[in-house]
Amino acid sequence: MSLDELRQGITIITGTDTDVGKTITTAALAAWLEAEGHSPCVVKPAQTGMRPDEPGDLAVVGELAGIPQERLVEWARLPEPLAPTTAARRAGLPLPTMDAVAGRLVELTAQHPCVLVEGAGGLMVGLDEHGHGLLELASALAHRGHQPRFVVVTRSGLGTLNHTRLTVDALRAHDQTVTGLVIGAWPDSPSLAERCNAVDLALIAPVLAALPAGIGENRAAAAGAIARRFPDSYPLDSGHR
User: Hey, which residues are catalytic here?
Assistant: First the structure.
């Protein structure tokens, strides 16, 4: 598996949990595709924890990756920072079904060579009113002749091996393609556990990159760094292992 697969079709970015670095990873992947001349479209099916006038995850992606607004697509905005299914129920707002989301994504592939989809939280988080999530979305896409691939964003520290294997095994049990893992925040001075985890994570799925911790905090600096250097400068080299 390699990042070259992302140049065509639909790639879903999910995580082993919330706040693992999905948005920064999505920005990094989008920046790399943009620099390669592939003009990605980035989709966030449901954004939670934001009012209509607040910048959400796609604003971060656009700023860091240099993606214009017309290629940043969001289909639902919910005010409370909860799983989309829960947030929509509490707000009394509708969510598109995964079948409807799949149809919209297929339409986007007719206009854009590659589409990145950022999920919410982890793999099993509900994204519509029925509690269906990314696995159901992938199934709906396959029924339309579009087999997506997954990139899984994971942590570096203790607990990551269990969470990562559970996520990857669930995907593979449903015949989904896992392109690889991205460690969402790799520390400047990794602990023994983190160094060992970097080796063991690669036994679960290929580690595509380890993004430096804090890369998204200075957005102006991060935008240039991501566009210039991802992914070649961010693999785990022998000094990290």
Answer: 44
